[in-house]
Amino acid sequence: MSRLRANPVPPVAITVLLVLAVGAPFQLVPFHTFQLAMAMIYAVALLGLNLLVGHTGQISLGHGAFFALGAYTTAIAIQHWDTPYLATIPLAAAVTFVLGFALGIPALRLRGLYLALVTLAIAIFLVPLLKRFDGLTGGSMGLTVTKPAPPVWTGLAEDQWLYFLALATTVASFVLVAGMLRSRVGRALHAVRDNEIAAEVLGVNLAHYKTLAFAWSALLAGVAGCVYTWVIAFVSPDSFAVTLSITLLAGLVVGGLGTLWGPLLGGLFVMFVPSLAQDLNQAAPGVIFGLLIIAVMYLAPRGLAGLATQSAHWLGQRFRKGKTHAH
């Protein structure tokens, strides 16, 4: 895997992005507000997948399974145990963290295609497994929960409140991962990704950091699944088929592997491109979706985040040359 680095974003750009994000639900119709909330939920899931694939160099085709576990943990806690909504986030995070860590242990002996097949198998058998426990998961019919109501003092509509819950979760997740990548843990993960043998010689505990990457990746997917349940208010096994895992991986590659902002662009891609493909041709949305992925990867091999970085660099060079010629 080529050496990929998280591209820093100027503070001004981050501030502008946050201002636009805060103002968006007051300018958009409820359906578009819902779509943006879903894009941010997918971005959190992709942030975890990026931590594993882009920053540690491990392969996973089963990330949708952890997304589903977080969603079902939340739905079961609300439906059967009357758990407060905010309490379901640490619960879903803890469950998926433990299961991700457990998966990371046998994954230590696997690499490349073998690891991809094992993670794919998890995504495949999860759906029939969820259907077997009718009393707990609702079986094929799934579970319906009540959406969290906005506090009266906010004056927000339901769609706006759900949007801000998704936004707060997304911002917190990106801040957490950005801090992790700048720390000793981030440097160790990059060392494992770039050259495992050299990293081990330098004293990096491969087993520790690989399992840690799986655990944190699963945790973020679980948190995304939790907020998904809040926003959708319904979970069913068929919503988390193996195609979800493949779509998430495709969205990450399109957004930009190993970059901090690639998951955000990938979340927008995962949310809006399938609906765009559906609008263009209802008979073959999958074909159009696949062709769009091929086109993006041909035009931007490093993903949309890499394309944005290259474009900004090119514009900066042109601007500096223009100033030089002016003088």
From TrEMBL:
<keyword id="KW-1133">Transmembrane helix</keyword>
<dbReference type="GO" id="GO:0015658">
    <property type="term" value="F:branched-chain amino acid transmembrane transporter activity"/>
</dbReference>
<keyword id="KW-1003">Cell membrane</keyword>
<dbReference type="InterPro" id="IPR043428">
    <property type="entry name" value="LivM-like"/>
</dbReference>
<feature type="transmembrane region" description="Helical">
    <location>
        <begin position="112"/>
        <end position="130"/>
    </location>
</feature>
<feature type="transmembrane region" description="Helical">
    <location>
        <begin position="283"/>
        <end position="300"/>
    </location>
</feature>
<dbReference type="Pfam" id="PF02653">
    <property type="entry name" value="BPD_transp_2"/>
</dbReference>
<keyword id="KW-0812">Transmembrane</keyword>
<feature type="transmembrane region" description="Helical">
    <location>
        <begin position="60"/>
        <end position="79"/>
    </location>
</feature>
<feature type="transmembrane region" description="Helical">
    <location>
        <begin position="85"/>
        <end position="105"/>
    </location>
</feature>
<feature type="transmembrane region" description="Helical">
    <location>
        <begin position="12"/>
        <end position="28"/>
    </location>
</feature>
<dbReference type="InterPro" id="IPR001851">
    <property type="entry name" value="ABC_transp_permease"/>
</dbReference>
<feature type="transmembrane region" description="Helical">
    <location>
        <begin position="161"/>
        <end position="181"/>
    </location>
</feature>
<feature type="transmembrane region" description="Helical">
    <location>
        <begin position="241"/>
        <end position="271"/>
    </location>
</feature>
<feature type="transmembrane region" description="Helical">
    <location>
        <begin position="212"/>
        <end position="235"/>
    </location>
</feature>
<dbReference type="GO" id="GO:0005886">
    <property type="term" value="C:plasma membrane"/>
</dbReference>
<protein>
    <submittedName>
        <fullName>Urea ABC transporter permease</fullName>
    </submittedName>
</protein>
<keyword id="KW-0472">Membrane</keyword>
<feature type="transmembrane region" description="Helical">
    <location>
        <begin position="34"/>
        <end position="53"/>
    </location>
</feature>
